[in-house]
Write a structure and sequence with these properties.
Blueprint: H1 2-18, E1 21-23, E2 39-42, H2 57-70, H3 74-84, H4 91-101, E3 102-108, E4 116-123, E5 125-129, E6 138-141, E7 148-150, E8 162-169, E9 172-174, H5 179-184, E10 193-197, H6 200-209, E11 211-216, E12 221-229, H7 237-243, H8 254-263, H9 268-273, E13 279-284, E14 304-306, E15 317-323, E16 330-339, E17 349-356, H10 358-366, E18 368-378, E19 391-393
Parallel strand pairs: 2-19, 4-17, 5-11, 14-16
Antiparallel strand pairs: 1-8, 2-3, 3-18, 4-18, 5-10, 6-10, 7-8, 8-9, 11-12, 12-13, 14-17, 15-16, 15-18
Helix pairs in contact: 2-3
Length: about 400
């Protein structure tokens, strides 16, 4: 047993040195870094801004999706049973249900402040083919067999939700191929092509979103979702373009980056390669209600939220108070934490799922708002039931 532990430790150290520890969400960006202790402050319903104004029934439907997973956990069973009995009820009745079976806790930053960054994501539509051609020459890849994944959480609980990625080169563990290496040597992943698409920038942003749809020439729509990632950290090309003076900050949105790429085709490959992170996909059933989040349940447009699971438990309802993209108009509604993201790190930090279609793309691309968050926990929960690093203030529970 000691030899096995020693072997696992050596592998871990090798991978930690050669690769990056990253979570396993819809997309992966920066590797996880040590975070200050999260703070959750018990609150009264009257202090949850906008709580009385939300049309709350759609949030119940999203929460019921979470319950397909949460109902297997003892502390969520009663809330899920009662939620199921709320089907078909009006907003006031559903609101009363949440007030009766949950306690709101405001999420605070480590320094005690309330505000954080709220961004958006969506499900894009690309044009593609199952065979390559002069038009369709940018491949989506499935997960290659040589991608090495080591899960040490059973030995090292602090690595829960983390996986180590790399590949073997002889007896040596080395990082998996970067974006630039994959682009420069397609033979490395030959035979793992899932589909081909016609736009390199659209494919790049599909990897950022983590899921999407591809329309084939015969009109067939193929749904694809996140399968895995190469283990390299994400680097924001929007920030890079701003730092290089290529784009002003106010135009560093998804739309602005796409427009820049169209005007600068020669510079584009080098810029894209600065983000070494690379996502692999899998084909999903076309009958799904929405793309899968990290919980493994379909996301609900306008009601699903990606959060840091070290702060907010997956599946929990979260009341979000923010503003509509690029406006001061209030956007206050009950969401459900059903997804994660490599860039979604920190306490008051979330990614708002806008759904599918042009409006969703516009809103997601422009969203970079300030917001506040309250996580709703079942009344049976005690502070010890929050994520291990969490600290609960102002609660006698």
């Amino acid at each position: 047993m000691k030899d096995q532990l020693r072997t696992l430790t050596v592998v871990a150290l090798l991978l930690l040195g050669a690769c990056n520890i990253i979570p396993t969400p819809r997309v992966t960006e920066k590797p996880a870094e040590p975070q200050p202790m999260p703070v959750l402050k018990a609150a009264d319903w009257d202090t949850v801004e906008g709580w009385r104004d939300d049309e709350i029934v759609p949030a119940l439907d999203a929460f019921l999706q979470s319950c397909t997973v949460l109902k297997k956990k003892a502390l969520w069973q009663e809330a899920c049973i009662q939620a199921d009995s709320m089907r078909g009820q009006d907003d006031d009745t559903v609101r009363q249900f949440f007030e009766s079976y949950f306690v709101p806790y405001q999420v605070l930053n480590p320094d005690g402040t309330e505000n954080g960054l709220i961004t958006g994501y969506y499900e894009p539509l690309l044009k593609g083919s199952r065979t390559p051609s002069a038009r369709y020459r940018y491949p989506l890849y499935t997960t290659p067999e040589e991608l090495l994944i080591v899960d040490l959480s059973s030995v090292y609980p602090q690595l829960k939700n983390m996986r180590l990625r790399g590949r073997l080169e002889g007896r040596k563990v080395v990082p998996f191929y970067s974006r630039a290496e994959i682009s420069g040597n397609p033979a490395a992943l030959q035979g793992k092509e899932l589909l081909w698409v016609d736009d390199e920038v659209d494919l790049f942003f599909l990897q950022i979103q983590g899921s999407g749809r591809v329309e084939l020439e015969n009109g067939e729509i193929v749904r694809v979702g996140y399968a895995d990632q190469n283990g390299h950290p994400y680097r924001s090309i929007g920030k890079l373009l701003v730092d290089r003076g290529e784009l002003p900050l106010e135009r560093a949105s998804m739309q602005g980056i796409k427009a820049w790429g169209q005007k600068n085709p020669r510079k584009l490959p080098n810029i894209l390669h600065q983000n070494s992170s690379f996502v692999f996909f899998r084909e999903l059933p076309g009958t799904m209600a929405g793309p899968f989040g990290s919980m493994g349940v379909p996301l609900t447009a306008g009601r699903s939220l990606a959060v840091d699971p070290r702060v907010i438990p997956q599946g929990a309802p979260v009341f979000l108070s923010t503003t509509w993209p690029n406006t001061d108009e209030q956007l206050q509604r009950l969401m459900v934490a059903q997804d994660t993201g490599g860039a979604i790190k920190g306490n008051v930090r979330a990614d708002f799922f806008w759904g599918f279609g042009p409006d969703a793309a516009q809103n997601a691309g422009k969203m970079r708002q300030t917001g506040r968050m309250w996580v709703l926990m079942p009344v049976e929960y005690l502070p010890k039931d929050f994520p291990p690093a969490a600290r609960v203030l102002g609660s006698s529970r």
